[in-house]
Amino acid sequence: LPPRRVARPGPRPAPAASPAAPPIAVQTRDNTLDLRGLRVDDALSMLESFLDRLYGDQRRAAFIVHGVGSGALRGAVRERLEQDRAYVEAFRPGTMEEGGDRLTVVTLK
């Protein structure tokens, strides 16, 4: 019987590059601002200072706790974040694990 020719496998193709997963935001005491119980004006002033500090420290995430209440504070915080694109890349309500709509998670530039 003649010898069989065995096909030699060629080089394996490189695996397709998967898109980079977004960084996971981890809530800590240093990147969390609790505004519950404050008046809107005071809360927005604290929010601005807080974001300025985190941005200066090159942090990527902030957790803003505003509670549920009447929704006035939550609405004011999110409206300010929408307007403040100097620091803010994106923001979203918290997931159920993070505390739900009681807080807003901010991704900083």
Any overview of this molecule?
This protein is of the alpha+beta class. It has one domain (32-108): Ribosomal Protein S8, Chain: A, domain 1. Helices cover 27% and strands 18% of the residues. It contains two helices and four strands, in the order βαβαββ. It has helices spanning 40-56, 72-83, and strands at residues 32-34, 61-65, 88-93, 103-108. The chain has a four-stranded mixed beta sheet with strand order 1-2-4-3, covered by helices on one side. Strand 1, helix 1 (40-56) and strand 2 (61-65) form a beta-alpha-beta unit. Helix 1 packs across helix 2 (72-83). The longest helix has 17 residues, at 40-56. The termini are far apart. The model has no long low-confidence stretch (mean pLDDT 87).
Give the SSE layout.
Elements: E1 32-34, H1 40-56, E2 61-65, H2 72-83, E3 88-93, E4 103-108
Parallel strand pairs: 1-2
Antiparallel strand pairs: 2-4, 3-4
Helix pairs in contact: 1-2
